[in-house]
Each structure stands twice: as structure tokens, then as C-alpha cells.
Batch of 2 targets.
Target 1
Amino acid sequence: MAGFNKVVDSYEAAMAGLQDNMTVIAGGFGLCGIPEGLIAQIKKMNTKGLTVVSNNCGVDGFGLGLLLEEKQIKKMVSSYVGENALFEQQLLNGELEVELTPQGTLAEKMRAGGAGIPAFYTATGFGTPVGEGKESRQFNGRDYILEESITGDFAIVKAYKADRYGNCIYRHTAQNFNPIAATAGKITVLEVEEIVEPGELSPSEIHTPGIYVDRIIVGKFEKRIERKILSSVTSNQ
Amino acid sequence: MSLSREQIAMRVAQEFGDGHYINLGIGIPTLAANYVADDIEVMLQSENGLLGMGPYPTEAQVDADMINAGKETVTAATGASIFNSAESFAMIRGGHVDLTVLGAFEVDCHGNIASWMIPGKLIKGMGGAMDLVAGAQNIIVTMTHADKHGHSKLLAQCTLPLTGVNCINKIITDLAVLEVKDGAFHLVERAPGVTIDEIRTKTAGKLVVAADVPEMMF
């Protein structure tokens, strides 16, 4: 009886079933809180034609930027993609499509997708290029556009600690898109720093309840820092 | 004299009210955090999921799991909370953030803002800017009054693709403080030593000038 033991012991098992042309939702903000080992596994599998939904696309040689090297990504759905020369090059060559989506709309698309809500109205983007071609409607005298939610064939998520049920917590701002990405995958895979005994995490502190999680793997993380700024350089406040 | 970046930031900080939740964009707005008055308490929201952003860390405090929306290492202030991106934008889109300050390429006298896309140049994305301008109670733009060729950035109608419509309340430039209402820019203050004529020359959109326009006080 496997019961609720969702822990797998290899990255192959963690990403089993990923195929060409699937949609993958990835947690993370910049390089913070990204499922490094799961991304590396997708690179190893050399799956092509992927639609990747993630706030950013990593940097050259790290994070989701790795998947650009063998042109595995067909389309990126992101709010900001400015950190990546290879991305720029493939975009200009027409090898890569990008759907720029406001950050809050992107988050809400995942949240709604995971909650079974097919679309929602938002004021964000009304009257801008983002709103072009989308249905709009007034509520209480204000204009809103209709945005469709997103679900993925896979969601790849980085968490801090999880138990075998998939109950997990995130650490600091490495939380970001991870909990909502976790809700929106047909198959949701957690890559975690540590597996803890059931009961060790208090039911009250769980960020993502295990019901959203299908597989868990323990990873090793480089945790690269994109912009290290110290208080001695300039006091921010 | 036109204001330096630091002086613009100092003037921005005068807009901060006690008990305000504030989101500061990258650049000059972020500098304003250095000039919060001693007798008020504000809380800075960083849209990646941090309410109560503290100073940059010391070397010993650096933590890869602790960054701000500019992807810079940061600390959490006392009273801070951390949450996911949907929660973060619920705060923003739900109108719970009292003040947003951000930069722009252009603002027009209808309160429209263009800040993310120049056709023909590579488009990196809007990040959270469209959500912020659609959601905050009060939105202030900081920018230079004119571009480096002397062309006004305060227009009758924005020419670049918009970030948001009819949403900007106030503009703080290197020359002036202006309110945006009733289809015009209303000159509220001018930088020390800057003449109304210079502001008039560098404001392409409709400008309303009161009989007496005080100089900014620092």
C-alpha cells in the first residue's frame, strides 16, 4: 500500500509522463524559489515544444534559461523576461513565442485555474495592449477585462519542507508563485529541501495542503542570487 | 535648478503618511525609502510577496530566499509578513495599498501612463506595473519632466502603449509637482529656482497654473 507516500527517489520518477508539447507551470520569482533539479531533469529529458508558465525565464545557464539551450520551449507565459540574452535571441529569431502577462494577472490565472474558475474579470490591463481583443465589461462604472485561467499538465514547485502526504511549507520570499503553481498542475511535483516526519509540521502552518501534490523529491539547491546588494553599499532605508 | 534623483526622492517621501502601506517601484521611487520622516511609520510592500521590507542585508544576513521585487537581497522589517504572489496582488488589486510610486516614460493629462513598452525596442515585460496602477488608492509618478532631447514627457495624449488608463493622481519631476485632474496638469509646486516659464515650455499637455506657485520645501 503506497497510501499517501508521495515521495519518489529519482528525478526520472518525479517527471515521468512529461511529453512534447505539454504545458508546465513553474514556481519561482527570478532565481528565488525555483525547482532547480526538476528543471535540470526536463533539460535531461530534452522534451520539446513546451509551453512554460512562469513569472520569469531564469538567466543564461541557470533556472529555466537552461531549457532555452536546446530550444525546448515553444512558448513562455511570463510577466518579465529581461534577464536573459538567449531568450532575446530566440524571440527575435521567431523561435520562441512570448505571452507577456501582468504579474498579478499571471498569479490570478494560476490561482483561478487551480480553483476550477475558468476566467475572471480584472481592471489590470484595460485600455492597454494586454486588453486588446479581450472581452470587457463595466461593473459599478469601472472597466474590466476578462482573463482566462491557466492549468498545466505539470506544475513544478520548490518547497522548503514537506511530509510524505505532500503537506508543505515555503521559506521566506521563496514562496512567491510556488503555492499557486502547486494548485494548477494535473501532476504537481514538489522539489523540497527536506522531508519531515508526518506531524512534524503543524496543521496550522501548512502553506500547501497535500491534496494538491502528486510527487515529492528531495533536491539539492544551489540557490543562486541574482542581485546581491548589501547594506554597506547604500542604505536603502 | 532642476532636482537631482535624491532630491526627487526626498520630495516623494513627503507624500508618505503615517501608517501607510506603500509600494515603491525600481529606481527613484526606491530611493525615497531613505527619506521617510522620523515621526511616521510606514510599511513597504514588495510585490513578490513581502509586506514590511527592511534594509539591504549585511554580508552575514544575506539569504537567497529573501529578495525584493527587484530581485535584490533584502531583509524583513519588524512586523513584516510573507505570502504568495496571488495574495500579494490581492492586496494590490483589492485597493489595500495606500500609495504606489513608480517611474514612467510618459503621462498624459487624462492620467494615462506609459511605462513598459517602446515599439521597435525589445520588450521585457510589464512585471507588476499594470496591476499596481490599476489597484492602488493613490498613484504618483516620478520622472524627469522632459527627455534628454528636451521633449516633454507630460503630454496631451500618451503616444506609447499604455500601462494603465486614467489612474495617475500626481507627478513629481525634476522641475515640479503636478496634480492630474479634470483633463489637465495642475502645477502645485516648482523646484527651487525653476521658473513657471520653463515648466510651461516643457509641459506639452494642458497646464493650469495658479496665481501663486510655491517652491518645494526640503
Target 2
Amino acid sequence: TRTSSTIVDRIENLVPGRTEIDDEMLDEIEEILFAADLGVKTTTEVMDRVRTNLGRRLKVPADLRPFLRDELLSMISVTGSGDDTEVRQPPEVILIIGVNGSGKTTTTGKLAYNYIKQGKKVVLAAADTFRAAAIEQLQMWAERSKAHLIKHQHGADPSAVAYDATKSALSREADILIIDTAGRLHTKSNLMDELGKIARVVSRDIHGAPHETWLVLDGTSGQNALNQARQFLQTVNITGFILTKLDSTSKGGAIISIIRELKVPVKYIGIGEDLEDLQPFDAERFIDAIFGENDQPSQESKYV
Amino acid sequence: MFSQLQNSFQKVFKDLRGQGKISESNIQEALREVRVALLDADVNIKVVRQFIAQVKEKAMGQDVLQSLTPGQQFIKIVDEELTALMGQTHTKLHLSNTPPTVVMMCGLQGSGKTTTAGKLAASYKKQGRKVMLAGADIYRPAAVEQIRTVAEQVGVDVYAPGTHMSPVDICNEAKRLAEGRQVDLLILDTAGRLHIDDELMQELVQIKESATPDEILFVADAMTGQEAVNVASSFDERLSLSGVILTKMDSDARGGAALSIRAVLGKPIKYIGSGEKLDALEPFHPDRVASRILGMGDMLSLIEKA
Ligand SMILES: Nc1nc2c(ncn2[C@@H]2O[C@H](COP(=O)(O)OP(=O)(O)OP(=O)(O)O)[C@@H](O)[C@H]2O)c(=O)[nH]1
Ligand SMILES: Nc1nc2c(ncn2[C@@H]2O[C@H](COP(=O)(O)OP(=O)(O)OP(=O)(O)O)[C@@H](O)[C@H]2O)c(=O)[nH]1
Ligand SMILES: [Mg+2]
Ligand SMILES: [Mg+2]
């Protein structure tokens, strides 16, 4: 079995034969929220909300699930941001950033495939010139997705790659330029500065670029994800998150406190290692998955 | 973040001054603070619960030492329990009497297996051993190029024939080659996989059965959340792990996953990864990681001096 029991089962198991919401039940709910990586602050706040609503919106155990669902949903609804109505002059530049191994290159490949499927012309920039075979890895994704790749040698200046890619995207009249960057820890200031430099380079030739900067967060990560998001936001203007590896048993609940604090939306989720394993983020489905309502998306039944 | 716990401890323990014994009532709040610290560090909630109960039992009724306040003594108990739970310092792999020693790396996607394989190779090469790497990841794009590049950077032999052979065959052939070349240490790098991916987990079992590794190391990302222990347990159930390596400890993650895995599996943490470069591999020091998980390094050193 993947997990001993889903959260719904567990909440549901609390219910039979019990007509009252008791302390034991509250403890179990708390444990469920912790296990989904919500962290102390958010879990405590949810539990406080539960407690203040006891006897009001929460009369019987069956009230718990819809209540929790609503509470969490309201926590991750980001309003007033993500102004997508603005018409942009192509090429639109998307900068992909994140800590080591979170899934940036894979996501870049999936995004390219996604846009190309929509009939768009895509250029990829291999701006990870540091990690062993990072360029070759992106090259394979470019071949798979049929995107055009701009690359330099291993060890080259990432900004120079971004510069060339910008020129290439302009001259080829591409719709989208996606820049894959090297994994970097948010604590390393020299590497963070490098990101700022890449962003400045692309802005010189393309107005408003990078139009999107997406921070790729590993869905299996815990409370450190908040530090990551905070620190990256200090350097670049993050316009969205991508939460990967949600095909694992992790619920990705750390994202909740991140969205709440930083008011940045999740754009996509990664649910596998193939071209098509990218889905637009759907808040309701995400919360339902936290509560185990639909099983984790599997290879056969990805939720569309 | 690191000082938060210290501040709350100081507050809690001011009230404890002058009380001669540690009792349930005077440590209730302190226990709550420890619980928060552990959860913030991503220690699994079940492990936290057990640990708190254990500390409580240990602390209760103890006479407060002359040199310490009840608060300091409580922290000392917490730290000692945590350090004990983390096990001992391990710096060596178990080397086989009949070389090659075969080491198999396994873990979730992106945890750092390939890089760590390179680091181990570099470390043992430096000790004068003949090391060889084998690339058994036929799935990830350019995994073959990556392991070859890593091997070249370290300056060791590599067997990574490509994606036309099965991972089991690759490992067997690598072992055969290693025997012929008098290799001391053969490191098998496998593809990242989810513990719930039955087919790929079965593949690891087959590699284990045919290449009979001396060490099976689970490579875990220090930033992993609550599921770390379930993932590690699943790998352990299938493969019977011999140890754990915790990577990306150069981040500011507190690394509670280490404690959870250690507490539940009881397997030693053999090394920590502390950077992307191939020399960034360090011995695991239980006391340091314990303080880091508690987020109170400074305070502990103060108490040591007291
Ligand atoms: N199961 C699963 N694996 C994923 C997903 N996204 C990426 N991966 C895997 O995670 C590993 C790391 O992915 P990469 O795309 O190389 O990550 P990265 O952020 O580019 O890594 P660096 O460039 O080294 O920092 C690979 O094995 C990917 O196949 C996902 O959504 N689900
Ligand atoms: N900062 C830091 N980065 C690390 C460490 N160990 C590995 N990495 C980085 O993490 C990323 C993933 O490392 P890999 O060795 O490719 O991970 P893997 O487990 O082999 O990945 P898959 O084969 O795709 O499952 C790379 O960017 C590495 O440079 C570490 O200790 N510290
Ligand atoms: Mg990458
Ligand atoms: Mg690898």
C-alpha cells in the first residue's frame, strides 16, 4: 500500500459511532494536517479555526470535512495577482528557477511540449552550464518536444546563453522562450546574483522580459520550501510556482503557507517524468488530494 | 528562525528558576516548544510524538544539578536523547574481504544519487582505492552522459553502456568487469524512482539479487518533508538498506528527515552531502545534526561551558 490510509478514510474513521467532535478527534485532524506538510503555523491556525467553530459550523463529525476543505481552499486562493489579460508582444520569456533537483529541466521540457502542442514556436535556453550533462539533458527534452535549443559549452556564462537565446527567439519570431537555469540553493548569494543578471540580460532586448519567472518547488519537500520561496523572491520577481512530483505520496501541503505569505499563485503541477505529466494547478483538486478524496494521480489515471 | 526556539526557551525557563525538581507541570510548556521545533524541522509527526513522550519520562523527577537551571538541564536531556537517537558517527563503507565491494545507490528522483556516487568515488579514490562507477539509469534523459561526466571529473572508470541494456544486465556486467580489472569499489548508480512504483522497485530487488551489493545506500534530500520516513521504510522493506546518505545539507533545511528515518529504520546515516562539488561529502556527526534539528546550536555550546 502507498499510504496506510488516506486522510478521508481517517477522518471518516473518526466518525462512525461518534456523534460528538471530541479532543481525540481534533488531535487526529491535527496529525493529518501535519502529515500533509502544512507545518506548525498553518496547522495551528486551521485548528484554531476548528476550535472556534465548534458548536457552530461544526456540530457533528460529518461537518469536519467540508469545513476543512473550505478553510484550506480560502487559504490558497490568490486574488488580485496574475494579471493575464495583458497582451504581450512575442516572444514571451519564461525564466525557470529553483533549488537543486526540484524538476526544473523536466518541467521546461514539459512546458515546451505543452506550448508546441498549442501551435506555438518555442525556443529553449540551456542556461545551466554547470551541472554534469545538464545541457545534454535539456537537449533531449528539446528533441522530444521539438523545440529549438540554444546552448553553449559546459562552464560558459549563463547570461551569455540567455543573451543568445533572446536574439535567436527574436530573429526566429518565436512565441515563447523558456530559460532553464542551474539548480541553486537560495542561501548562496553569488548564485542568486547570477539569476538577477540573467533577468537583466533578457530585459534589454525584450520589453518586460522575463514576463514570467516560475519557481519550481519539489512537492516532496517540507518546511524549507517557504525559505526557498522567500529567498528567491528577494532576487527575482516570481510570478508563479510549479509544484512537482505530486505523483509521489507527498501531499505538497507546504505550498499552502507559501501562497498565503507571498500571494503568488501555483501555475502547474508535475505528476510524472513524461512529456505530458504537467497539469494546470487546480486548487480544489489539490485540496481534495490533500484530503485523499481522489487518489494520487497515477500513471494510468492522471486527472485532467 | 534558529533563535526562535532559544527565545521561547529562555522565556519558559525563566519561570522555572528556583524549582528543585523537574516535574510535569514545569516542563509542559517546554515540551510544547520542543515539539514545535521538531515539526518545523520536518521530523515526522509520529516520531515527534514518541520522542516527546520519551524525553518527558526521562526528565521527570530528575534532581536539578547545582550548576544548571532546570531549563538548561531539560535542554541537555533533550539534546542527549536526540543525539543518542541519531546513532554514531560513521565515516566508512563496509568494505568486502573479497573485492570488489559493491555499493548500490537508491532513492527518489533528484535526491542526489548520481552526484553522491561521484563523491564516494572521489573520496575512496583519494584513499588509494581503485573505484569504478556503473550507470544503471536508462530512463532519465542524459543520465548516461551525466555519470560519464562525473566519472571523468573524478578520474575513475565508468561502465555506462547506454539505454539498450537492462539495468540488471548493466550491473551484472559492471561487476564482471570490475572483478577483471581488480577494482576495489564498484558503485552502482540507479535511476530515481517513487517507492510506490512497483515495477521500478522490483527492478532494484533484481539488481540486489544478481549483483549482491555489500552496501545499499538510501540517498535522501535533507529538505524532504513528512513523507521521508514512509519512503525510506518502503525502500528498506524491499531492499533491506545498509545505510542512509543525507544530501543538500548545505541548505538551511533543518533536516528533520534524518531523525525520522534514523528513528524508524534504525539504519546508520553514513555521510552527509554539503555541496554540488564532488568533494562536498562529510562524515555524519549526530550531535551537530541534533542541534541543527533543534535549531539551538549556540545555546548548547553555552550549556556545555556552564
Ligand atoms: N516522479 C516525478 N519525477 C519528476 C517530476 N519532475 C521531475 N522529476 C524527476 O526529478 C529528477 C530531477 O529532475 P530535473 O528536471 O533534472 O531537476 P532540475 O531541477 O532540473 O535539477 P538540477 O538542474 O540538477 O537542479 C529527474 O529524475 C526527473 O525525472 C515529477 O513531476 N514527478
Ligand atoms: N547543494 C547541493 N546540491 C546537491 C547535493 N547533492 C546533489 N546536489 C544537486 O542536486 C541535483 C540532483 O542531483 P543528482 O545527483 O542528479 O540526483 P539524482 O538522485 O541522481 O537524480 P535522478 O537520477 O534524476 O533521480 C543536482 O543539481 C546536484 O548538483 C548537495 O549535497 N548539495
Ligand atoms: Mg536542471
Ligand atoms: Mg541520477
